[in-house]
Amino acid sequence: MSTVLETEEHQALRAAVAALGKRYGRDYMTTVIREGSHTDELWAEAAKLGYLGVNLPEEYGGGGGGMAELSIVLEELGAAGSPLLMMIVSPAICGTVIARFGTDEQKQKWLPGLADGSLTMAFGITEPDAGSNSHRITTTARRDGTGPDADWLLTGRKVFVSGVDIADATLIVGRTEDARSGNLKPCLFIVPREAPGFGRNQIDMELHAPEKQFELVLDDVRLPADALVGDEDAGLLQLFAGLNPERIMTAAFGIGMGRFALSKAVEYARTRQVWKAPIGSHQAIAHPLATAHIDLELSRLMMQKAARLYDDGDDVGAGEAANMAKYAAGEACVRAVDQAVHTLGGNGLTREYGLASLITASRVARIAPVSREMILNYISHQTLGLPKSY
Predict the structure, then answer these.
(1) Which of 244, 259, 202, 246 is nearest to 83 (CA)?
(2) Residue 93: which of 122, 65, 126, 119 has the closest Cα?
(3) What's the rounded Cα separation, in Å, for the pair 273 and 271?
(4) How many angstroms separate the CA atoms of 324 and 369, rounded?
(5) Could you tell me if 258 and 332 are in contact, meaning their C-beta atoms sit under 8 angstroms apart?
(6) What is the pLDDT of residues 145-159, one digit of tens each?
């Protein structure tokens, strides 16, 4: 894919990460999934090379870059067939929120480990009865006592939380108890994995991935006062500071997966010969693959725009662009995978070629972390100024 719009540093980063991804590839990922293990080796090597914390502040061991750099890392690992889903969660969401809003103590405790990969953090926002409606979040936090040093008690449920089993802590989105009136007042809390009352149940998924999904049950989880990230009254700003990077990185995830599938299809179409010429010489094969390539390129342009706006501090502009990028990448990913499988015919459904499992995986970019319909709602309301139906 063309990189003419990127700096030399970005091109060098892309090439270096691509080389790392190539050393692991899809075979590594499928082996990890089959064995029920985790991507520890790839995570450790990516961390050692400075890729996991490329977006975090230099003073805490990060690379001092932003979402532009981190999205390159995830995209290229995905294009090699070995994406690291926890990059979306740990450095992009949690690392960004703590770097921007955490106390000095929280930054010192978490950022160096998130940057060098020795610490991992999960992110819990989705609830069984709330879905995409963050205004219906019922996980509540209440003070056990009075004064700024009083403990918090956190109660509620979360679903589809990735990687809780390997995360040292989970950044939980709750709301203060006095917000039950309907006014959204989210607060973010760092909940250690072994905190009493913090229960988890693995969700049985058809999606085959190293990162497992969990339901969380928080039963009066007692947290110290300093578990609260940032200002209790600035929760909405802090929440969206993490959600925009999440959308940018989900776009990178989808683009990388789409590129991997497309590369497999193109390679097959160049060499597979049924009649007198390779099947890729026929427009019925070539044109859909060319369309998939165009869609992925366009998605990446919007992702780059969103990353640039976010890194420049334009949260409002980044919100619009990040949603558009996530939408475009999700659609492009699904279409690229579908066309790749179709190009290979029966071979596209075999385990040998490694594309069939992506049929399910590619849907993730459409569904999570926010559905394409909710993105269309966002654009129709926020960008076009059309009235809401809800």
Answers:
(1) 259
(2) 122
(3) 6
(4) 13
(5) yes
(6) 888 899 999 999 999
